[in-house]
Design goal:
Layout lengths: L2 E2 L3 H6 L7 E5 L5 E5 L5 E7 L9 E7 L6 H16 L4 H14 L2 H16 L3 H16 L9 H9 L5 H21 L26 H12 L5 H11 L3 H5 L12 E4 L10 E4 L2 H10 L19 H22 L9 H4 L7 H12 L4 H8 L8 H6 L5 H18 L14 H12 L1
Parallel strand pairs: 1-2
Antiparallel strand pairs: 2-3, 3-4, 4-5, 6-7
Length: 437
């Protein structure tokens, strides 16, 4: 059998001889190239697991071409040679790798992890499933679990530096997935996250929009066309999460648009939720209808809206321009004030905190605001959460109408006033009781 240093030039120059031939590398013992009568070139490794009295065995490394260059194939042959020296069998190694590629492919294993562990044990499993599907699977796809390294996970998490809450959630989910694969299932020997530093806890945010900032938001939204103008209006009017509103469908609303029945898959807590719609939300829906099925906020008819970051940047520019114009109208000198000072950074989630702050100022009880937000903490936690099944629909309707009136009033004044006792929740509730009797 001929021997030569296996290089790309040498491999490309080998002719097809009409019969199967082997060429063996002069540098790595057992590393060779098989050439078929048709000219197909395949890298192989030949070895013995015992002494000279044992038969030689041969395993295929891969066909010449991407990803198997001569250098890559030689590196794999060196790995297999080391395995033989340690008493291992490359055939068994290849079998285990094929098995891992099928049964331990990350995408499939993540689905298995959701069904077998997250669903029975995590109340927020739907949110974890969304993070795996949206943020993790596209990175690892069908890579076998044993091939995912600490560096791979660090690369994934580093891409979330601008979203610290998501980064911490993704870290916790992956930490649990790999630990479960090691300690409970025994599918892998060690977790690549064992030596990783934990992602630091995200400090709780206190940012909420002041009345003047909220006025600029309302006015800027009025200048924003479909789909994001109506989307922002509904985001503020319902005080629901960004993804929940983005996934809203016409069929989820009652015929008169007064109730929104939100399915569990759109809720972070994984529970069905019913929320009243104030007049501003109803008017927004009516301006887009009449429709009875499909997504509300879509430009394709089949997929939800995207491009939130770009839309937020455009909204911020409009808000800053409005804040500057309103200040100048009041005679204030804001020419030298930087935009970031005029409108400090904020997130869509801050609208929920803004709405709750306003509702508290109007006298709305905390248990009502928590039900509006679909929170399962505070007054809805523990024994109270188990036994209190009341859903505060009349109270939520009053609260959200008050909130909607406050947003409408912000459009009409030069200097927006903070919510105060002018909108007395208790008075509205008494009026509701009087009408009922």
């Amino acid at each position: 059998m001929p021997s030569l240093k296996i290089t790309k030039r040498a491999v490309d120059a080998l002719p097809a001889t009409g019969s199967q031939t082997f060429v063996w590398d002069t540098e790595v013992k057992g590393f060779g190239l098989k050439v078929t009568p048709a000219g197909k070139r395949t890298y192989v490794f030949q070895y013995r697991t015992g002494g000279r009295e044992t038969a030689t065995q041969r395993v295929t490394i891969g066909e010449h071409g991407s990803p198997w260059s001569p250098d890559a194939a030689r590196k794999e042959a060196l790995r297999l040679s080391g395995l033989v020296r340690q008493g291992g069998d490359p055939r068994e190694d290849a079998r285990q790798r094929r098995k891992a590629a099928v049964t331990l492919a990350f995408s499939d294993y993540a689905d298995f992890f959701v069904d077998r562990y997250l669903k029975p044990k995590w109340k927020t499993w739907r949110e974890a499933e969304r993070i795996l599907n949206r943020d993790v699977k596209p990175m690892f796809r069908r890579r076998p679990l044993p091939s995912i390294s600490k560096g791979d996970i660090d690369d994934l998490l580093s891409g979330m530096d601008d979203r610290p809450a998501l980064k911490r959630q993704a870290y916790a989910i992956l930490k649990k997935l790999f630990n479960w694969a090691v300690k409970t299932r025994g599918d892998i020997v060690a977790s690549p996250m064992d030596s990783m530093e934990a992602v630091s806890t995200v400090p709780s945010r206190a940012r909420h929009l002041a009345a003047e900032e909220l006025a600029a938001f309302v006015l800027a939204v009025d200048q924003t066309p479909f789909p994001f103008g109506p989307y922002f209006r509904m985001l503020a009017g319902t005080l629901q999460r960004r993804a929940t509103v983005a996934g809203a469908e016409w069929s989820q609303f009652s015929r008169n648009r007064e109730l929104w029945s939100i399915p569990a898959q759109l809720m972070k807590n994984g529970l069905d939720h019913v929320g009243p719609c104030n007049s501003d939300v109803r008017e927004t829906l009516e301006s887009l209808g009449p429709k009875r099925a499909g997504l509300i906020f879509t430009t394709t008819g089949s997929t939800g809206i995207s491009g939130f970051s770009k839309a937020k940047s455009t909204l911020d520019r409009r808000m800053t321009k409005i804040l500057r114009a309103r200040a100048e109208q009041r005679g204030e000198d804001v020419a030298d004030i930087h935009d970031s000072v005029l409108l400090p950074p904020w997130r869509f989630h801050d609208l929920r905190r803004t709405g709750v702050t306003a509702l508290q100022a109007m006298g709305v009880p905390v248990e009502v605001t928590e039900d509006i937000l679909a929170h399962t903490s505070g007054t809805r936690e523990g024994v109270a959460g188990v036994y209190n099944k009341y859903r505060y629909l009349p109270e939520k309707r009053i609260a959200l109408e008050l909130w909607g009136e406050f947003l409408r009033d912000l459009r009409s004044t030069t200097l927006a006033a903070e919510p105060h006792r002018k909108w007395l929740y208790a008075d509205r509730l008494k009026r509701l009781d009087a009408d009922a009797t």
